[in-house]
Amino acid sequence: MISLDLISGILAFFFSLMILSYLIGDNPLFRIAVYIFVGVSAGYVAAVAFWQAIWPDLIQPLIYGTTLQRALLAIPLVLSVLLLMKISPQLTRLGTPSMAILVGIGSAVAIGGAVTGTLFPQISATINAFDLSKVASPIDAIVNGGLILVGVVTTLAYFHFSAGTTAEGSVKRFGLIEIIAFVGGIFVAITLGVLFAGVYSAALTALIERLHFFGTFFGLGN
Amino acid sequence: MRYVALVLAILTGLVVLVGYFVPALAPLRDMLLTWSIILAGTATLVGVFNLILVHGTKVTKREKGSIYSALLLLCLFAAFIFGLALGPDDPNIRLLVDAVIVPVEATLMALLAVTLLYASIRLLRRRANVMSVVFILTAVLMLFASATLPFGEVGPLNDFLRPWFQHVLALGGARGILIGVALGTLTTGLRVLFGADRPYGGK
After folding, report:
1. pTM here?
2. Number of domains observed in the structure of chain A
3. A103/B177 CB distance under 8 A
């Protein structure tokens, strides 16, 4: 009897081959693989959304919860039903209050995350780079901390887009900002270059892993 | 309906935001967060239903490429029904994930090695300015410094230049980008909470 693992391996082999066929250009085999992938992923995501959000937080407490829990859950139940109205073009307006709550709560969470998760830690880390007790030598703290600070400030200036109109009528940033932004552009290019190298290394690792998978599928190597 | 949505967005958003700083509001904040998880789950289902509608219309109208849409719908229904009946952690569903989702994602990632190389060559041909040259030089330097070369590691490149680029120059730029993103998020969030932006449908 053919084991499920063998079927899974054969399917994985064919899907990998179909996706790799994109190297010779867009073709039906690649499209079939991508459409199947999108279909399976969407179905799987819908099942995960049901089992990990709707069932434990809504349906299960509605069936087994206390009266108070059930009464409180009537509100998200109604909001969820209203949100489902978004599927129909005629009833889509009914889903707007649910979307408004989702967006309002999402914005508040995003603000909290941005302030406590990014702004404060990143700013304090930039300041701490000058902490003499945490580095080998004061020169390190001044040079490296200074370069990091220059990088942060100039990168922020690079994304500053306020501009004035010149005598010729063209729009240009102010002279000093333009110079600072140029330095910021160099820092952004270095950052993206480092990130690119990381992503490229990961992609090469994935390519090697796939080629190794083909090899083991045909019994070459181990 | 417009004003109801506006009031709901501002009210729920403010309660959650103030709930971070006022402990007395924490239970209300947690309840609203649970509601938002339920709504996010339902929104995911709405998105999947929309995908079904788009591809269902393609199939019924027999548009170009409708055979692919039919295949997509077939796989979507199969994965959804089996996922719903067995649960996402069932070994048979994991097998489906291992047979389709994981290999396709891994191979798409592998394809990236070729497309990224092609894109970087095109970048130098199309826009050869200071930023592009610095970007490519940094990427090549980082790849050489991290790769195992036939003649062994290049000492200063691996021991000094790579860590210095990563932990000083790139860190400064990355920190600037992160702070910029956070400031953008803060501004956009506040605009929603003040009712200046209404992405949920109000004018």
Report:
1. 0.85
2. 1
3. no
